[in-house]
Amino acid sequence: MDKPLDILLVGIGGYGNKYVNALLDNKKERNYKIRGVVDPYPQGCQRLAELEKREIQIYSTMDQFYLEEKADLVCISSPIQYHLKHIITALDNGSNVLCEKPLSATVESGNQIINKKNQSGKFVAIGYQWSFSDAIQELKRDIIKGVLGRAVRLKTIVLWPRSIDYYNRNNWAGKIKDNKGNWVFDSVANNATAHFLHNMYYLLGSQINQSATLKSIQAETYKVNDIETFDTVALRTMVNDGTEVLFYATHAVKERVNPRFVFEFEQGVVTYDGSEEGAEIIAEFEDGSMKNYGDPFKDDTKKIWLAIDAVENKESIYCGPEATLAQVEAIKGIHQSVGEATRFAEKLIRSAYNNNEEIRYVEGLDGVLEDCYDKYLLPTELGISWAKSGKLVKL
C-alpha cells in the first residue's frame, strides 16, 4: 500500500469543523493521515474528543508542529489576519496549502503569497467551494471558449441575516484591525458572502486559473450593527473591457434570501436562483437552446479531495491566489470608495429573535436591495432617502 498523505489542520473551530468532519469521516476512502492539528483554542472543535482518542497531536503553533513532523498538505481555517503568516509558514516547510477564503486581508499580503508560492514549487489553493464545483468549472470553460460571447453585465444578490452574537463570537468580527493591529477588514463582503463576489470575478478571468482585471469600483456601505466595517453593501465594479459587475449583500435583514444571479452575455443569459435546494445554473442562448450546468453547492468538500489529488498527481489548482486576488482588490476598493459606512437611522432599525439570538435589521432594506438588483442600480441611483454614494475609485 502506498504511504498515506500527511495532512495538518490549522484552525479546527468554526468553519474548521467542516474540515475535521470531512477528514475524520473520509467518505471518499482516500489514503491520508491527519498528522497533527494546530489551534491555540481547540475547544471550538465539535469532535475534539475523537481527535484525542485517535492520538492526533494538538499544537499551539505551526512552528511547534514542524519541529516534530512534516505535512504534504496543510488545510488552513484560521482567521483572515493569519492567512499570510500561516500560508508562508507552510510553504517554507515544504507543504502544499488549502486555505479558506479570502486569500488575505490586504492586496500586499496577497502578492507576498503569490511570490512565495512561485518560489516554493508548491501549490496554494483558496477554498471558495463554488470555484471547485463542476458547475462553475464547466461554465468558466464555456465563457473562455466564447460559447456565450462577450460578457455584458453580471449581478448577484444575497441577503443573509446575522445576529448580534455573530459579531460577538470573537474579537475581530466586523473589525478593520484586530486588537494586535493586524489588518482584518472583516465584513459581509469579505467573509460570509465573499464567495459570490469572487465568483463573478473568477468567471470573467481569461484563463482557468485567473480572475477578471478590475478597472474601477463604486460602493455604498451601511451598518446596523456596532461594527467598524459594514454589514450592508451595494457595489458596482467595471472589469476587463467594460463588463459591469454588480453585487448586493447584507446581514441587516430579517428573512434569508439565498444567492441569486443573472449573468448577461452577448449570446446568452446565465441564471441561478438559490431559493430552492439543489438549484442549478441554467444558460439560455440566443437561439433558444438551453444548457444546465448543475448545482454549484453540490459537494462543498470537493476542494479537499481535489487538493489531495493535486498533491498525489501534481494536478493543477484552478482556484489559487492569482484567481482570488481580485476579491481582495475589491475589498480595498470598497474601503477607498467609502471611508466609513453610513449608520442606518435608529427609526429604521427593528429587532427580531431567531433561535434565541437577537437580529437587528432595517425595515424595508430587503425590498430596496431587491429593487436595486432588478434595475442594475445602487441605492443612491434609485433615489433612496437614506442612501449615500461612495466615490468612483480607479484601480
Automatic annotation (TrEMBL):
Residues 7-128 form the Gfo/Idh/MocA-like oxidoreductase N-terminal domain. InterPro entries: Gfo/Idh/MocA-like_OxRdtase_N (IPR000683), Gfo/Idh/MocA_Oxidoreductase (IPR052515), NAD(P)-bd_dom_sf (IPR036291). Pfam families: GFO_IDH_MocA. This is Predicted dehydrogenase. SUPFAM superfamilies: Glyceraldehyde-3-phosphate dehydrogenase-like, C-terminal domain, NAD(P)-binding Rossmann-fold domains. One of its GO terms (molecular function) is nucleotide binding. It comes from the Bacteria.
